[in-house]
Design brief:
The protein is mainly β and about 120 residues long. The chain is about 0% helix and about 30% strand. A 3-stranded antiparallel beta sheet has the order 3-4-5, with no helix packed on it. The protein has a two-stranded antiparallel sheet with strand order 1-2. It has a two-stranded antiparallel ribbon with strand order 6-7. Strand 3 and strand 4 form a beta hairpin. The chain is globular, with a radius of gyration of 16 Å.
């Protein structure tokens, strides 16, 4: 799990777990409105290992909690050796459900890469 914000710059990581090729990973981010906190959870469905942490929503300049309206699903990869990538250079994301203001939404997904590491995009 990682939470990153650009302004003001802030980064928080959970502990890490090892996963194997072919493992199915599950993740969720759930808002607790009573505490203005996001609960971030990921698990390896093959091994049942999991990581979790909570992110308190900061207040904006107006004193009200910031509104988050962008979601990013990221496969971090720049620190890996080339033989650690999937043999076909593909990672598949599936069964993604997103809600905004309590309503299910259908985002317009795009793909991008920052580092062209081992030609895995």
């Amino acid at each position: 799990n990682e939470y990153f914000q650009w302004s003001p710059t802030y980064n928080q990581n959970s502990k890490a777990i090892s996963v194997s090729a072919g493992d199915v990973l599950y993740g969720s981010v759930t808002l607790d409105e009573s505490t203005n906190t996001y609960h971030v959870y990921h698990s390896d469905l093959n091994t049942t290992q999991s990581v979790t942490f909570d992110i308190k929503i900061q207040n904006g300049p107006d004193g009200k909690p910031k509104t988050f309206d962008h979601a990013f699903i990221v496969m971090e990869k720049s620190q890996w050796a080339c033989d650690q990538y999937p043999p076909n250079n593909e990672v598949t994301f599936f069964d993604i459900t997103m809600k905004f203001d309590g309503e299910k939404v259908s985002p317009k997904w795009t793909t991008a890469f920052v580092d062209d590491h081992c030609d895995c995009r």
